[in-house]
Amino acid sequence: MVDDSLNRTGASLLIDALQANGINNLYGVVGIPITDLARLAELKGMKYYGFRREDSAVDAAAAAGFLTKKPGVAMTVSAPGFLNGLTALAQATKNCFPLIMISGSSERHIIDLSQGDYEGLDQYNTAKPFCKKAYRIDRAQDVGIAVARAIRTAVSGRPGGVYLDLPADTIAQLNNDLGEKNMGVYRLVDPAPLQQPSDEAINRAVDIIKQAKKPLIILGKGAAYDRTEKQVQELINQTDIPFLPMSMAKGVVPDDDKHSASAARSLSLKGADVVILIGARLNWMLSYGNAPQFNPDAKFIQLDIDATQFDSAQKISAPLQGDLTSTLNKLVPALTATGYKTPSDWLDAIAQDTAKNDAKFAKRIKAGETNPKFGYYGAIEPINDYFQEHPDTYLVSEGANTLDIGRDMIGMKLPRHRLDTGTWGVMGVGMGYAIATAIETDKHVVALDGDSAFGFDGMDVETMCRYNLPITVVVINNGGIYNGVENVVPNQLGPTTLDPTARYDLIAKAFGGDNYYVTNYQEMKDTFTTAVESGRPNIINVQIDPSMGKESGHIGNLNPTLNLKPLEEAEKEKSEKE
Ligand code: ADP
Ligand code: MG
């Protein structure tokens, strides 16, 4: 399709190297110096998806990495574009999503003498602390090996983000050195080699589980990423060990499986004497494994590809280093050979607590249908109803209360069908994740967003509409960060206040998508299915009451409070004292 000298440019070799490794989608925002690179990618048969801001594009590539188990690839321009993408690069690395961010850059000699190039920045060194590894391609002849290193680094061991620095010179430089050797471009052999724990390590774990009176499995997004559903389900079915899924592990075992301890989360964490972590970290989301959330005498078994994760916060009594699939392929038969079954009194205690909590929850949901103050429960119930009937729909979610209540309410039946704010709890991932999910899966996608979260990347609604993607963005609008009514200074817009009358749905209309506006449960119920099944890009503005929504959602404990009093009250108290 392109002539021979073009074929020898760094740009062309880069595209060949990606394609040779089965990477056919590129996400990005073009400009100097990568515009022709993106065009050439299209000419050579890749699909290029252009965004409105780099963080959305890089988030999209990260989501593609999570969904496909191959690195997603994003491209940005130099300094400001690179810096906009950097948050998403850091976040992908924290989330263990394989990603390659490629940014156009300046030549080394200009940067090193600080000569003041157009958008000049030492991007290579700036990126280093925010990714697994940064590489820089100074010569066209090195492109093949650079891409190989980037791919291997992104997917092997603990997956993560890689930065590839691409000086403008390298893009246009000709490689005439390698001739027939396919110009140094090749397909990697075994990019993420399997790793097995030793028999000794397996036996150590089996010996501990065998003795467990109250075992518990915690599934993390590593289990989803590594496609362990078959092995995990067998483990659970053979031993009856109850499980708790972290949010992105929902669906590895269906949420409605009888072994789910989700509705008895506190009781099962507090009671468990043996905790088996499968692709989950004992970080802030699991209270670092500490009491009182966990039993102080619990023994931990951890399955992870990264040995440095063990003992991060608790003593790990049986570390199992390896990829999860290989590890489970050894562990499950070894454990079932012992005939181990979870003691029934532990299962009964969980079942009782589950029944109690389920009844409470069902009551709350029912009340949400008719509550004159329309809130989260009434808004989200129809979404859950839809997902129970159509489990092969994808869900992306962000926000505070929207995220937390949606996570509890929406049951997932299939693995890797839920993407959310992840390890850092970042807002502004919704549009990038939803767009990539629609592209990579060809399925309907629901992006469930709080009004504040949606504001971070709302302009990428234009991207969703431009590519005519089957995405329904649900904006739960309570006019504020957390909520829209919490003000301390009278007659002044407070820090958490947003516009409760904002018509987010009209943004879709502006770009040729469809818009819906609902103000109560019945309208949401009537609208949601139509919106999703239209297969068109659309936004539903769900107008809930501005007083709905707790400060910081379910993690208010992380937000230092200063015992603030509304100004009038404080002045009254002061004058009373005088
Ligand atoms: P969650 O937030 O869902 O609890 P985390 O992101 O904290 O999950 O943990 C995921 C863990 O899974 C990380 O420690 C990561 O090293 C591990 N992991 C990711 N991919 C694999 C894999 N293929 N095999 C084994 N472990 C993996
Ligand atoms: Mg809000």
Provide the low-confidence segments as ranges. Answer: none
Q: How are the strands of the biggest sheet laid out side by side? A: 2-1-3-4-6-5
How many strand units?
Answer: 17
Which class of the largest domain in CATH terms? Answer: Alpha Beta
Distinct compounds present: adenosine-5'-diphosphate, magnesium ion
Radius of gyration: 25 Å
Overall mean pLDDT score?
95
The proportion of residues forming helix, as a percent range, comes to 40-55%
The CATH homologous superfamily of the largest domain: Thiamin diphosphate (ThDP)-binding fold, Pyr/PP domains
Strand composition percent? 15-25%
Whole-number total of structural domains: 3
CA distance, first residue to last residue:
86 Å
The secondary-structure class comes to alpha/beta
Shape descriptor reads globular
Main sheet: strands, sense, barrel: 6 strands, parallel
Do you know the CATH topology of the largest domain?
Rossmann fold
Second-tier CATH architecture of the largest domain? 3-Layer(aba) Sandwich
The number of helical elements comes to 23
